[in-house]
């Protein structure tokens, strides 16, 4: 009899544990009309003050759901379309936009303030399925310290990167999983054209380029010039953003003459990030309010120091940090989302076999 | 019979069929040409080659390292043997992600070896191979050592008396008797390493991929569902062949051997040679099996100022401003336990009913069913997760936003363990006992409760323990279907590892340590209730 009791106990214990998770993990929690859920990638950040301002203005609380890096987050949204994890998606850029649009992830909505965004940043002008929120340039960054120590000029162009002087110095991201990695690949395709870019990457590989999975790993772990990595990295060249040098100055007292890292200005690719209302959103009204807010001046002026990208709105004021230490790239490479959409899969595939295999 | 059959049809057959459809049909027509395209792609062949190559290398290495261990456990008696046997089994039930992170802490950048000798192996094949050996050591020790301990040593002695040299006697008598179990162990290890996911995901970097990892990348990274589907089918075929060979070798293993009780074959080591062997095996276990786990614990207890403390564990309870999670990571512990408990109940129900059905009937159909239930063990977990994602997404079976999805996938992997543990015990229950109870007027329920339950209670506990440990560590399927707001422990670990910075790394180590402790405690509890020879694991 005692045995039966212990077995019964074990089963009852399991059942009670079960009861504890009946409500957890369902998407229904956030569907109350007072919460709006923003699905995004790991790099999204906004100050509490600004999010509270949104709640005061509209009465909606924002729940932020981060799902991996930009690429995985977009794919999650595609795989979960019509049964979305939230109401608004932020963080699909021009390199992946076609994938999201072709799969019908977004519902049209024209956000207030779109007229303040320069026309060259807008996409999908007929239907307004997505709203441009920020823009930035993906460029090779260099660690000034290293190059002055080695008495070597930092590289300026894509061609420079294949020179023996810069052997084993560059770390980039996996173009299949990371948006800066893909942006850098597109920059090379734009510059060398369909026939030559593979040859360029062969040279880059022979010159010891290292590939890691995501931006955080590349910049904080591998790059020698990042303060967050405490200088533990051993690669003085990294694919990052034109706005990364100001970040390195952030919080330094006294403020230095120039940022500890620099940008190789002829290696850049212009990236624009979009947000959109997810098809089948549980709280469509709240989602629209949130999209309006993402284009409001309050959010747009908060965004540079949170995510270190430039606001999409032309009339948003840049913080002093950006105007003083930032680099304005005059002529970045760029590519139309449609053209990227047509070539992307094949390019990434060839790149993977060229560089990783 | 009906319940398990329906369960498998719905949650295994249907998702796999959906993958096939997704991969090979377009516009309502079969596109068999696409399979050819994918299979002739040099990149795919490269992945396939790497998968086979590393599985073969891992298997060889594991046998090489673990066979002396199997011998020592079989033939020698020494204090602490029982505890040590439980200890070497701990890695086998550890979640692969934890194994990956332990080896990262040992061999990675800034890892223990890097600090001591400047040695880094984290982006080399060696790290993967070593992790696989670590993982499968117990498989060889248990499968081969189990049989070895029951071989009668006098047979070999007789051969020696008849004039055979020492080596010839061993080769002709012992090795011949061991061969089927050696083959079975090798096959098991090959199967586990062939479908390795967590270890390669963590240690492989962007350069190395097994089929399993490639399926995941094609789906989550590139969203190339057709290619992923073809790869899935390829792996499915390979695993089916391996399982068929395994089943055949198991039947071979049932050949008649003069087995004796294991208690009489083990004795104290004698002479310098045997003591040296014992100590060298202990040293291998210490270096290979204990060190990675110790490093893991040590890393989780560091603090940012170079001292030791519980800072990382405390951080698990806070919600980081730019966090990966909607909930404090500590909640992942609760999620994991709840999911694993649910999965264990489902696995016990399905596996128990299947075992009962297989006991009552015999015949070719039933044997086929038995083999079918083993399939999920060898089928890629990633396939199951991927299949769930694309199959269970429309009414009446829209489970994508339901929490039950995760335990269902985990139960699928737990059922084979339940089945293997319950079947031999149930088959050993004498039917006449029930009949006697019925004649004496007991209702069927009461007859079951008073006659059968006490007999199979132990096996039931062991089965549920195994199912629990396996569900707790399940990673491949869960990573596809766990929603970001309710991560399980392994998923949380992998997310932390994917982010840079000391705090994330430390929290990954802390969560891994917690997971390891839960698994180890479950396993040690199992060792205590283990029936003499319950099942094959």
Automatic annotation (TrEMBL), chain A:
GO terms for cellular component: outer membrane-bounded periplasmic space. The keyword Signal applies. The keyword Zinc-finger does not apply. Pfam families: SBP_bac_6. It comes from the Bacteria. GO terms for biological process: thiamine transport. GO terms for molecular function: thiamine binding; thiamine pyrophosphate binding. Keywords: Signal. InterPro entries: ThiB-like. This is Thiamine ABC transporter substrate-binding protein. It comes from Streptomyces armeniacus.
